Amino acid sequence: MNVTELTLTELRRRLRQGSVTSVAATEAVLQRIIDLDNDLRAYLTVSDALALEMARDADERRALGEDGPLLGVPIAVKDIICTQGVETTAGSRILEGFIPPYDATVVARLRAAGAVIVGKTNTDEFAMGSSTENSGYVTTRNPWDHEHVPGGSSGGSAAAVAAGLAFGALGTDTGGSVRQPASFCGVVGMRPTYGRVSRWGVIAYASSLDQVGPFGRTVADCAAILQVIAGHDALDSTSIDAPVPDYEAALTGDISGLRIGVPQEYFAEGLDPQVDAAVGRAIEQLEAMGAQTVVISLPHTRYALPAYYLIAPAEASANLARYDGVRYGPRCEGSNVVDTVKQTRALFGAETKRRIMLGTYALSAGYYEAYYGQALKARTLIQNDFLQAFESVDVIAAPTCPTTAFRIGERTADPLSMYLADVLTVPVNLSAGCGLSLPCGFDDAGLPIGMQLIGNTLQEATVLNVAYAYERATGWNRKRPVETR
C-alpha cells in the first residue's frame, strides 16, 4: 500500500485502526517530496524535523488512548500564514528570513487537532497573482502537466495536495486564490464565508477580502479541515461569533428538492467550450440526483473584476506600507532613512509594486471618490445580486474558471489577461459568501476542469453536501496526475 495515495479521511481511519502510524505516513510524504518536489516546487520550506517530531508525538498520544480530528495527519500550510519557529515569507524577498514568534490561529487549531505540519507552500508574492509565477523564489508547476501553471495564489498548496505531497493544505482566497488553483490542479478547495475562519496571523493582502480555506482530494477532506479551523476568534475583530455546524455530519449526499441557480452571466463570451460543456454536464448530473435547476441573473457581475482590482490594491497599498526594512525581514542600508526604505521596498516584485501603485493612486486626493468610492458602490450592487438570488435558490453552480490551466509564461507579459483568470471567482469575495471548487471533468489536453458551487453567508454545510453528492456520483476526484513527465 502506498500511503500517499490515501485521502485525508482514509488516512485518518487507518490511523485510528492502527494499521498505519503517523510516523510512517509522514515519512512517506517527506520521501515523496524528495522524489517529486525538485521539479514541482510546491514547497518553499519543508519542516521535516518538526514534522517527524509532531508525528512521533501523535503516535504516542494515540497509544495512550487519545484522539483528535486530525491526529497524526500531515498537512501543508501556505507561506502567507504565520508558523511559530518556521520561516514565513509570503513568497516575497522582503520577508526573507522572517521567523514568526507565534502561530496564526488556524495553525494553532491544526496543532490542537493533532495535525502534523509538513511545511510551507509556495505562493504568489503576498498572495497577489493567479499563477504562482509571482513568487519571489520559484514557480510551482501543475502536477498534471509541468508546462502549465497550478493557478494562484495558493498554487503551492493545490499542487501539493494533487501530487500527494500532503493529505490536505491551507490556502487563502482573496479573489479566488483557493478555488482557482483547486480547479487547475483537480482538487477540492473551499473559500468559507468571510469571518468564518480567523485571519489572525495571516499576512494581510486585502483585509476585507482575505479568507483562509482548505484544500483536499475530496469534499470530506475539506470538511474535516474546515471543522478544525472554523469558529470565532477574539483575536480577529472580523471573526463571526456564530455556532459551527458539524460539516462532516452534513455530508448526507441527499440533494433532492434543492434549488440550484445557474447564472447566465457566468456562461458568457470568453468561456472555453470544453469548460462550458463539462460544467453543463455536471449541472445535468445534479438535476438527475433530484435537484431543481433555475436560471438566474447576477446582473452586476460585469463590474466585479474592475471593482476588485480597485478595492484589493487599495487595501494592499495600506497593508504593505509597513514593510520598510525596520521591523520585518531584510534591511537594505542606505545613505539615510529615506534611501534605506526606498532600497528595501525595491525588494518587492513587479506585480506587488504594480498593485501598490494602483491602490495608492485610487486612494489619492482627487481620485478617491472617482475610483475607490465607485468600486465600493459596485461591491454593494454585487452583494445585493447574491442576496436576491439566494431568496429563490439554495446554491449557485457555475464554472470556477473560464479556461483550464494556461502555460507557464503565457500571460506574464499581459497583466489584464492574467487578471481575467479570476473573473468568475472574485464576485464571491466581494459578496462575503462562500464558494467551493471541485473537479467535474478534463479537457482534451488532460487538464482538470472545475465546477464552482456558491452559497449564501454561513451556508458552507449546504455547499459541501451538494459537492459531496456530485463527487460521490461521478468520481472525478479519484483520478491522479501522472508522476513523471
Supply the CATH class of the domain at 3-255.
Alpha Beta
**CATH topology of the domain at 3-255, what is it called?**
Amidase signature (AS) enzymes
Estimated structural class? alpha/beta
Instruction: Please give the alpha-carbon distance between the first and last residues.
Output: 23 Å
Task: Please work out how many helical segments DSSP would assign.
Answer: 15
Choose one word for the global shape. Answer: globular
Query: What share of the residues lie within helices?
Result: 25-40%
How many β-strands, per DSSP? 11
**Proportion of beta-strand residues:** 5-15%
Q: What value does the Rg take, in angstroms? A: 21 Å
By CATH, the architecture of the domain at 3-255 is named: Alpha-Beta Complex
- Report the mean per-residue pLDDT as an integer: 96
Arrangement of strands in the largest sheet: 1-3-2-4-6-5-10-11-9-7-8
Poorly predicted regions are: none
Order of helices and strands: HHEHEHEHEHEEHEHEHHHHEHHEEH
Largest sheet: 11 strands, mixed
Per CATH, the superfamily of the domain at 3-255 is Amidase signature (AS) domain
